[in-house]
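Fold Annotation — chain and its backbone
Next Lines — sequence and tokenised fold

***
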Amino acid sequence: MKRKFPWFSYLVVIIGGISMIVPFLDMVFTSFKNQKELNSLKFSLLPEHYHFDHFITAFQELNMGRLFTNSILATLGVTVLVLLTSTLAGYALTKIRFKGQQTLFKFILATMMFPAFLFLIPNFYITVHFPLVGGNDLFGEGGNGGLATSVLALILPFSVSGFGIFLMRQFVMTIPDAVIEAARIDGASEFRVFWQLVIPMTLPAMATLAIFTFIGQWNELIWGLLIFTVNNNLATLPVGIQMLQSALDPDLTKALVSAAITISVIPVMILFIILQKYYVKGMQMSGVKE
């Protein structure tokens, strides 16, 4: 098919690209429209006049500074910890021999079979009743919110990823054992082998995992809503936008919500642009078979 009709592949890619980018552009341009244009029955992608009032109102109504701070702290914290734990686990599961290695890896794979929402209530209970934190005593009692009063509540439950460990293990496996053994023979410690050898060779995989983790955590809503019920000061961007959309008439806040979402997308786009080279390289390496 590809040889007989080379144009067909390009056509599919173009149609797929248009179908994905048009809704995004519609959201961005909607944030610049006034109420008259939004209520018009005639659809127009581009606004007649660009209005920036919705962006100013979004910052004022949502307290975007605090929401951005909470989201950035939580997302960066989760991303860094996931990269650290996944790379360490991937290295240990491939290049360090110990009893029960395969059993442990199978257990990690098994955790990926369960939907994430199954762990919401247990994690929330553990967070609220975490001992010696947030006014709790040694037995987790006290009724002051426990760990849910700290930004750590948005970070620690997501600090380990089964998918991340699986992904990094597969990439670490591509590193020849002879290279690792040569470093050990030269007197390098396990930490030095990991830091100076494994990390540089797995940067494409780490960039790929960083993008997936950052996007997933940046858009996390359900857990943010649970923590919001304990401490309103820990609201993240998705929670703030959801509160705005629920509190006001959707027909009157369409442009305002679109402006808030457009602002929230900017950090994700910046991260992707920065890591794009490593991400593409990681995708190419993932399809190479030794």
Notes: The chain has a mean pLDDT of 83. The two ends are 27 Å apart (CA to CA). The longest helix spans residues 250-286.
